[in-house]
Structure formats: structure tokens, C-alpha cells
TrEMBL record:
The protein's name in its UniProt record: TauD/TfdA-like domain-containing protein
Molecular function terms, GO-annotated: dioxygenase activity; metal ion binding
Residues of the TauD/TfdA-like domain: 15-359
Domain of life the protein comes from: Eukaryota
Family: Belongs to the TfdA dioxygenase family.
Keywords: Dioxygenase, Iron, Metal-binding, Oxidoreductase
Length: 375
């Protein structure tokens, strides 16, 4: 499809069962007019994932400015830079660019110098430490798993609402091998993926395929997240599907976390409304969830039960035929609707395989829209 000014929107070859994603061609991301931005915004809310190819020369500043167009009142990185405490599980994964602190360098391997960042050791997650049960070392190069399905969000802090969008730009991508992604949950489900893919699922699809009873439950239940969730969960181990954590009592007790203010604890609707189309998306961060507040006023606070309920709701939405696993090429910039998709990194790298990605998202000042709100 072509729109005005030679800008083209092309469908991304995502799975047939869950069509989402679009590629936009013909826009200069460093010089966006208001009309250009409207085209991007409309495409984002309609398709959830927007791909721009060949963006190697886009500066970190202009990457940040693309995020900033969606959240003009925001200029703080989604997890803030002063809450990336060393005890947080996110700490080793994120290196802040000194000249553009809203943009993080993530990936794997040693980087001598990049955009003012010197001697950075990037560390991709690995099955050996991330999941409770590891993929055997002999199979490590051939197989992988989802690590952590998530929304990019601090999920703690009254002024740190989930970012509307995230941008991810592939600076350096190791190529040449693919891996078989195993769910390892007894279903036999597998997915053929490129090394170091980012996998996406549509929260709108996940909602759409729920039973009628589950839709009512999802529309009327609110999710309370753990305070300082990435420190709280730092000792717990991930399920093989990446859809939450094992309940082995390894979460840090609240008294071992940094100071907690009740007003900073985030409670969100389980379904978030698309601000353009009005559609509902099932949006839960399954690893950070701590309690469920039901419509009748009761609260499920048994963590094992909370996780079981959330898992049952989310698992159908990550079926292989619904997952879009992006096959990265250097220069790809993916803009995704962080309030309408879940995503996860995958892949097991050798220590010397260098992967460099620039990631940006901004903590928003407005909470996501719930089912009660109208567009
Ligand atoms: Fe992420």
C-alpha cells in the first residue's frame, strides 16, 4: 500500500494466524514532519510492530526523538537511570549511552568504543543461569528458549508508567546460524528462529482467543506488581516458556528491598485499551506480577496461584503460530507498541559473538487506558 509522498506500508511476513506488523519505507526518521509522524503513529497502533530498514546512520538522539514524539512530556528512560540498581536483574543487560542517557546499548560481547561508551562488556542472558532447568551444554548452540516475556516497564514508581513505545535498532548482528526454540513445557511446541531473535506476540490476539469467561475475568481483574520487581525476582528462576517464574520461595522479602512507598506500587488493569482503535490487549508482565485484585473486591495473594492464573491466560497467546520472531539485519529499527505486545529475547551466544542493539523507551506520565475508559 502506498500513502502520500511516496511512503510505503508493507506487511511484515508474520504468522498467518496472527497478522501484525508492518514495514514503512520512504520516511527520513531524522527529519519527520507532523504528517510523517501521524503516519507512523497510525501504523503503530494498527499493526503494533513497525519496521524501518537501513537505519544504521540514525543517531541515538534521533532514535530518542522518535520515542519522544509518542510521549512528549517524558524524557526519562523507562527504568530511569538511577534505579538500575546493581541488585536488579536488568543491571548487567543495560549500558547507558553517556551522550543520550535514554538510549541503552544491549547485546553480547566486548565493545571497545561506541557513541562515547568505552570498554563495555555486554551480556546476553543464558539458559544456564536464567531458567531453572538448563538446556544441556552439548545442545546449547542448536537450541534456545524464550527468556522472559515482558512489557518494558519499571512497574514501580507513581511517575514511572509503562512506556508507550520502545525502539530497538540492530547495530551489530551475528549471523549464519539458526536455532530451534523449545517451549519445554510438555507440549512439544518448537519454533525455528534466527540467532538472537526478538519474539513478539500481540496482546490483542491473546485477548481475542480467550474464552468468554476468561475475557470477563481479564476485563475485570487488576494486576498488582511487586515493589522494585526486578530486585524482588532477582533470585527466582524462569519457567522454560519464559512466561513467569517458578514459585520456590526465592523472591526477596519486602524488608530486603529498597524503601517501599505504597503510592509507588503499581496496580494496572489486566487489559489495556488501544488508544487509537479501542481494541483490548491482554497485557500482563508475568514475572513481576504479585497479586490479583478481583472484581468482587477479593485479592489473590498466594504467589503460586497468581502465577498459575496468569500463565493459563497468557499461554495460548504464545503458541508457535502466533509468535513473530524478527529476523534481524543490521540497520533494522523496530518500533513496537509496548502497551499492545509482549516480547522477549531469545538465543544463546558464545562469549565472543558480538551483538549490539540500541534500545530506547521513556517512562510515561500517563497510566495505560483500562477497559472502563473509552477512546
Ligand atoms: Fe524488552
Amino acid at each position: 500500500m502506498t500513502v502520500e509522498g511516496g511512503v510505503e506500508l508493507l506487511p511484515i511476513p508474520t504468522p498467518v494466524a496472527s497478522k501484525f506488523g508492518v514495514e514503512i519505507k520512504g520516511l527520513d526518521l531524522a527529519n519527520l514532519s507532523d504528517d510523517d509522524f501521524k503516519t507512523i503513529e497510525q501504523a503503530l497502533y494498527e499493526h503494533q510492530v513497525v519496521l524501518f530498514k537501513n537505519q544504521q546512520s540514525l543517531s541515538p538522539y534521533h532514535q530518542y526523538m522518535l520515542n519522544h514524539r509518542f510521549s512528549p512530556d517524558s524524557n526519562i528512560y523507562g527504568h530511569s537511570n538511577n534505579t538500575k540498581a546493581t541488585a536488579s536483574i536488568l543491571h548487567p543487560d543495560l549500558k547507558t549511552l553517556p551522550n543520550q542517557p535514554q538510549v541503552q546499548l544491549i547485546g553480547n560481547g566486548f565493545v571497545r568504543e561506541y557513541e562515547g561508551l568505552q570498554n563495555a562488556q555486554l551480556k546476553h542472558p543464558h539458559h544456564g543461569t536464567f531458567h531453572k532447568t538448563a538446556i544441556p551444554a552439548a545442545e546449547d548452540l542448536a537450541f534456545t528458549r524464550f527468556y522472559r516475556w515482558h512489557i518494558d516497564a519499571a512497574l514501580y514508581g507513581a511517575s514511572m508508567q509503562p512506556p508507550k513505545v520502545t525502539t530497538l535498532m540492530a547495530v551489530k548482528v551475528p549471523t549464519g546460524r539458526r536455532q530451534t526454540l523449545r517451549y519445554d513445557d510438555g507440549t512439544g511446541d518448537v519454533l525455528d528462529v534466527s540467532l538472537g531473535t526478538t519474539a513478539f506476540v500481540s496482546g490483542e490476539k491473546s485477548y481475542e482467543i480467550l474464552s468468554d469467561a476468561d475475557k470477563v475475568f481479564a476485563r475485570t481483574t487488576r494486576v498488582e506488581y511487586a515493589p522494585h520487581p526486578y530486585i524482588w525476582m532477582s533470585q527466582a528462576k524462569s519457567l522454560p516458556t519464559g512466561l513467569g517464574m517458578f514459585s520456590d520461595g526465592l523472591e526477596l522479602p519486602l524488608e530486603k528491598l529498597p524503601a517501599i512507598t505504597d503510592a509507588d506500587v503499581q496496580v494496572h488493569p489486566m487489559c489495556w485499551r488501544n488508544p487509537a482503535t479501542g481494541k483490548l490487549a491482554l497485557q500482563i508482565h508475568p514475572s513481576a506480577v504479585r497479586k490479583l485484585h478481583l472484581q468482587d473486591g477479593s485479592v489473590i495473594d498466594d504467589i503460586a496461584e497468581v502465577r498459575e492464573r496468569v500463565y493459563a491466560l497468557l499461554r495460548p497467546g504464545i503458541a508457535p503460530e502466533l509468535v513473530y520472531a524478527h529476523d534481524w539485519e543490521e540497520g533494522d529499527l523496530v518500533l513496537f507498541h509496548n502497551r499492545g505486545v509482549l516480547h522477549t529475547v531469545c538465543g544463546a551466544f558464545a562469549p565472543d559473538e558480538v551483538r549490539m542493539f540500541r534500545q530506547c523507551n521513556l517512562a510515561d506520565t500517563e497510566a495505560p487506558m483500562g477497559p472502563e475508559e473509552e477512546v
